[in-house]
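Appendix C: a fully annotated inverse folding record. The material below is reproduced so that readers can follow the format used throughout the book. The structure is listed first as tokens, followed by the designed sequence.
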């Protein structure tokens, strides 16, 4: 019996921190090893699907973020019982969070093995969780308008474009004129953009949605909208193969015509103070590009 175990502090690690521990080799009989080693590997993996049925093709790609190997021991005899080898790796300073979604992942892991001749190499693997700390961010107020035609508008007033983990997203809606709408949808999305072998696609994962009916909107009056709370863990990722970002989409439901919407990019961060959500909201006016 030959068994390898990786013993380390299995907790979330920040970029730049040291991952250290020991590799324990247990055997019921002395044996000769050629080499003992452990590796730390971090990788981004993506896949993109094109076509369907017989023409369906899956394109896969990967990007190595970190690949380091520590030789624990050169050729030697491993005695009966347990033998331990210490190890230490320092994570790179600029690496993204551990992440997993549909056809996309960022993963980090330790892999140890003892190389022996004429036999299977005893191995062990363990996942390393990386969590990038958030910084305080004083968000910017966003005040887009949706032109519904004939000079009528839906007004949006968002005190802060900072998305704080575990908190709610607050905004206000009003109208200018008498727009002919059924209502206004507000949707919060996590947008995952994947690239693989020169192809790309995107998934919009809805985190929350609220609808305000037309009867609740009146010129000169504001209607409060609250979405969330959002998950306690939010990640932003920007690599050549994988991007993760957040969008607040506000859509005017216009009967017998195409809906019109604005998209407000959100940045993940920590609010410097609670009064950030109570900022002055006395005027509106910044227009976003209108799609639809």
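Designed amino acids, in order:
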């Amino acid at each position: 019996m030959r068994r390898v175990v990786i013993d380390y502090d299995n907790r979330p690690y920040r970029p730049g921190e040291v991952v250290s521990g020991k590799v324990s080799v247990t055997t019921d009989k002395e044996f000769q090893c050629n080499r003992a080693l452990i590796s730390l590997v971090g990788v981004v993996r993506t896949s993109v699907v094109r076509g369907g049925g017989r023409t369906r093709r899956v394109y896969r790609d990967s990007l190595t973020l970190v690949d380091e190997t520590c030789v624990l021991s050169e050729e030697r005899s491993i005695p009966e019982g347990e033998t331990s080898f210490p190890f230490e790796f320092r994570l790179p300073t600029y690496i993204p969070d551990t992440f997993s979604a549909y056809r996309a992942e960022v993963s980090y892991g330790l892999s140890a093995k003892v190389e022996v001749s004429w036999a299977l190499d005893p191995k062990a693997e363990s996942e390393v969780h990386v969590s990038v700390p958030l910084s305080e961010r004083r968000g910017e107020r966003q005040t887009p308008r949706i032109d519904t035609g004939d000079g009528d508008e839906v007004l949006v007033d968002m005190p802060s474009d900072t998305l704080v983990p575990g908190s709610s997203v607050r905004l206000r809606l009003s109208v200018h004129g008498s727009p002919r709408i059924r209502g206004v949808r507000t949707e919060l999305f996590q947008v995952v953009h994947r690239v693989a072998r020169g192809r790309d696609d995107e998934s919009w994962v809805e985190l929350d949605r609220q609808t305000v009916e037309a009867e609740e909107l009146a010129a000169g009056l504001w209607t409060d909208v609250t979405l969330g709370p959002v998950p306690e863990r939010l990640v932003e990722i920007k690599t050549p193969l994988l991007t993760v970002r957040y969008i607040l989409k506000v859509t005017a439901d216009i009967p017998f015509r195409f809906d019109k919407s604005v998209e407000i990019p959100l940045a993940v961060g920590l609010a410097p103070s609670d009064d950030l959500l109570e900022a002055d909201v006395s005027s509106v006016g910044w227009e976003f590009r209108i799609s639809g």
